[in-house]
Amino acid sequence: MAGLSPNKQLIETYLATADKSKLGSLLADDVEWVEWGDGVPASGAVTRGKDAHIKNYGDDDLRNVLHRLTEENNVVVAEGTAHVTKKDGSSLSVRYIDIFEVEHGKIKRKQSFGALIKGSA
């Protein structure tokens, strides 16, 4: 993480956190998460609040491969691939772009745009 801005470090830490119980310290109390795209229960679904965000993060095994972080002011865009192994043993991969708004060193808002990688479900 050397050489990254504090906002990029925050987002990199968030994306690398496999234990969802550790997410709380990275999120603002009134965090908002908007999800768009394939593999999302309801495209355009909005989750509000830290507890709801952590619950929505799920219990499946999630591995993120981060391809790029881009930052302007307090907005960080993360491009990557998420690999999910579900509790039932099935798996899928999603190519994503997440747009994070950071306020006072915490994630205030996240918009997720994802597309299921064909043949991965």
What number of domains? 1
Output the structural class: mainly beta
Strand content: over 45%
Largest sheet: 6 strands, mixed
Mean pLDDT value? 88
Distance between the termini: 32 Å
Sheet with most strands: strand arrangement:
2-1-6-5-4-3
> What string gives the helices and strands in order?
HEEHEEEE
The percent range for helix content is 10-25%
Total DSSP E strands: 6
Give unreliable regions as ranges. Answer: none
Round the Cα radius of gyration to an integer and report it.
14 Å
The CATH class is: Alpha Beta
Output the CATH topology: Nuclear Transport Factor 2, Chain: A
Number of alpha- plus pi-helical segments: 2
CATH architecture: Roll
* General shape: globular
